[in-house]
Sequence to fold (148 residues):
Amino acid sequence: MSIAPTLGQNTGTAPSADAFLQFLVNLVNNGSQIESIGVTLQMGGMLVSGSIISGAEYFDSFATNFTSSLDTLDSDTRKTVRSSLAELGDVFRLPQPVDPLPNYIHLANALFFTADGTPIAGQPTLWRGRTSAVDGFILGRLQSEAAG
Fold:
């Protein structure tokens, strides 16, 4: 099934999300040969730049990062919390359908910039957002001056 007819259709109303961006997210979520895609998203006057990763990878990384900060908990409790969080990504471990298109985009090494490209201080991080909140995007990542 091709998505081409839905990408450029003019129905007279603005779509809730860009079907082409959702298609790219689906390619990564299906994890066949494309593990990540560098993008810069324009969202409400701000730029978010990073690499699209699968939902499974996002939740696995989130679980690991979150539980590593729980140093006051015993090892068994941290393992239980990590496992519970990682399970949220299980839906992405199955082949993703063409329809419905994904509602969320997951980025690794996300950096944030003002609309004019000025970096907003911060370390690269995991990021999750609604595809319907993206105003536009370009392929490729912006780099902060500090990141080189």
Remarks:
- The CA atoms of residues 22 and 102 lie 6 Å apart.
- The first strand starts at residue 37 and ends at 43.
- Residues 1-5 have pLDDT under 50 and may be disordered.
